[in-house]
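When time allows, look over one protein, given below as sequence and tokens. The question is which stretches look regular and which look disordered:
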Amino acid sequence: MEIISGKDISKAIRKEIAEEVKRIRDKDGKVPHLAAILVGEDPASETYVNSKGKSCKEVGFDSSTYRFESDVSEGELLEAVEFINKDPEIDGLIVQLPLPPHIDAQKVIQHVAPEKDVDGFHPVNAGRMMIGLPAYIPATPNGILEMIRRSGIETSGKNCVVLGRSNIVGKPMSLLMGRNDDPGNATVTVCHSRTRDLEKITAQADILIVAIGKQEFVTADMVKDGAVVIDVGIHRVPSAEKKSGFRLIGDVAFDEVSPKTSYITPVPGGVGPMTIASLLMNTLKASKKEIYGPVE
């Protein structure tokens, strides 16, 4: 059993990005710029946006955060998105979710210019990804691909089960693992809350990607011997042993599942660090106009 360290892989990616940013700055004098829109005071969103800002600084990016009170109107938010869309100095824009209930999140996401949509949530990027055109791939699935690629895991011809069907992880992950590429060329099954005989299906997987949002849902009897297990989940649970009073666990019961696997991601330190690394990768591509080319 080998543990795939997202922490180590993301560190290597950040170093590569920082070196490229230095070359770009020395040549052109401009560095990539990532903007984030943050509405309200959700602690998890606040922490995540702050982490993104620190990561940008680490690799030499510029970053901006546009903060709004939770009672901001949808119209005001759309105006802010449009303002950032038109700013030539900003290369990428993320809208931190969730948004307050009175705001249509899909409407806001669709208002982001596709060429600045480094989260990969816009329908144009989703559609381009689906038919194999260059696109911004959502950060978590893209991070998982990098983990698989850099760990030398073979995917071609393998039986891959994706547990979860969200627009952010499950759906794009299933498309990416089935595409004619490397990583890819797997035979993909998507499972969810209505799937019958779930344990039988997951136990046939050579590669099991778990993003179901239920703590320690996957147990040893659901996993094939020698399987690759990627755990996307993250949950806080009380712990008297930790100074913070809590510890982090995933969607997979790590202690009982890991002995059966060939590769497995831990929680924390697995998929999580790769998500921000992937966002940085997408922002660098946006700065270099790799996906859409120069926009008039």
Q: What stands out?
A: The chain has two domains: 27-113, 139-273. The domain at 27-113 is CATH 3.40.50.10860 (Rossmann fold).
